[in-house]
Amino acid sequence: MRIERHSGLFGAESASGLAVVIDVFRASTQIVTLLRYGARAVVPTNTLSDARELARQHPQWILAGEREGKAPSGFMLGNSPAQSASFDVRGKIFILSTSAGTPGLVAASARCDTVLVGALANITSVVKAIDDLAPQVVTLVAMGKAGIRPTPEDEVTADYFEDLLRGRQPDWSRIDTEIRSHPEALKFGDPAQPNYPAEDLEFCLGVDTSNVVPELRGGKISVFSSS
């Protein structure tokens, strides 16, 4: 197995083989949470206009997402996994549009044989799925800030994925400290940034809290099945 490391939207556009798209704060964790609590599927979109057009075509689907951390006008949910965990998501289909994660997923799906959603919340389960699939190439795509600027939560999570795939056990305490000390983490719970609740930080940094492996196939993300 060859492991490649890519970053940002450009990295997603150039991914190959099996891609793991990583957007820990918060799209990946949001997708894992929605499926964990019983959502039927999540439909990632490139733009807000794409999301709104899908909602017009499928009025029973629910709009969720963010721009600059805030739920866009007319969206029922933002991009908060803590909020989603308290919302009745069972059996519902969500249209998700975010600044980095969903454009990255859409871009990777145009080139890759398989696209999985990776987070700290499901890291061991994703690694197991990759081992079961035994692809020739795995591309780890750390989306970063707006798909443009690398951020530690995504880059060190990609490091964590690579270590596990290579049979190494990383030092989680070091990883956790590195992520929490960065401004991208410090905004959670900041009264001046109410779109980033403190609860979301714990959702995003909880390791192996879910065995859900989301897979993007045919334009929809659902729970991966090896059968």
Report on this model:
This protein has ten helices and nine strands. The chain has 227 residues and is α/β, with parallel strands linked by helices.
Number of strands: 9
Structural class: alpha/beta
Low-confidence stretches: none
CATH class wording = Alpha Beta
Specify the overall morphology.
globular
Short description:
The protein contains 10 helices and 9 strands. By secondary structure, the chain is an alpha/beta fold.
What descriptive keywords fit this protein?
227 residues, alpha/beta, putative 2-phosphosulfolactate phosphatase, 3-stranded parallel sheet, 10 helices
Task: Please describe the topology of this protein.
Layout: E1 2-7, H1 8-13, E2 18-22, H2 27-36, E3 41-44, H3 48-57, E4 62-65, H4 81-85, E5 93-97, H5 101-109, E6 114-118, H6 123-133, E7 137-142, H7 152-165, H8 172-180, H9 183-186, H10 198-205, E8 214-217, E9 220-223
Parallel strand pairs: 1-7, 2-6, 2-7, 3-5, 4-5
Antiparallel strand pairs: 6-8, 8-9
Helix pairs in contact: 6-7, 7-8
